[in-house]
Amino acid sequence: MADKLHFSLVSPERELFSGEVDQVDAPGSEGDFGVLAGHAPFMTALKEGRVTVHDEGRLTVYEVRGGFADVTPEGLTILAEHAQPAA
């Protein structure tokens, strides 16, 4: 089994997602990026766009506006100014 990435997506209103996933793609202010388990640590601002969560062949998509992404050895946390499930 491949390593899993711990991912949390938090907005001011609530935590929208927390769990172990295969990959997360997000809209960084300096370009879109993807994170897998074991990714090098970094922090970046987010622009408006879609966060796509990949897990076992399933995709879950959220729309975000602003905020920050923080990749640490423990996983990826996105603190979004606004986030909701994509329509």
Short description:
The chain is 0% helix and 71% strand.
Describe this structure in words.
The chain has 87 residues and is mainly β. The chain has no helices and eight strands. The protein is globular.
Describe the secondary structure blueprint for this structure.
Blueprint: E1 5-10, E2 15-21, E3 23-28, E4 31-36, E5 42-45, E6 49-55, E7 58-72, E8 75-85
Parallel strand pairs: 1-8
Antiparallel strand pairs: 1-2, 3-4, 3-6, 5-7, 6-7, 7-8
The assembly state of the depicted protein chains is single chain
Task: Write the H/E string, N to C.
Answer: EEEEEEEE
SS summary, helix count: 0
Amount of helix: under 10%
**Beta-sheet strand percentage?**
over 45%
Query: What low-confidence regions span 5 or more consecutive residues with pLDDT below 50?
Result: none
Overall form? globular
Overall structural class, as computed from helix and strand content, comes to mainly beta
Q: Total strand count, please?
A: 8
Average per-residue pLDDT, rounded, comes to 96
Rg estimate, integer Å? 12 Å
User: What can be said about the biggest beta sheet?
Assistant: 8 strands, mixed
Span between termini: 32 Å
Could you list some keywords that capture this structure?
71% strand; mainly beta; eight-stranded mixed sheet; 8 strands; globular; 87 residues
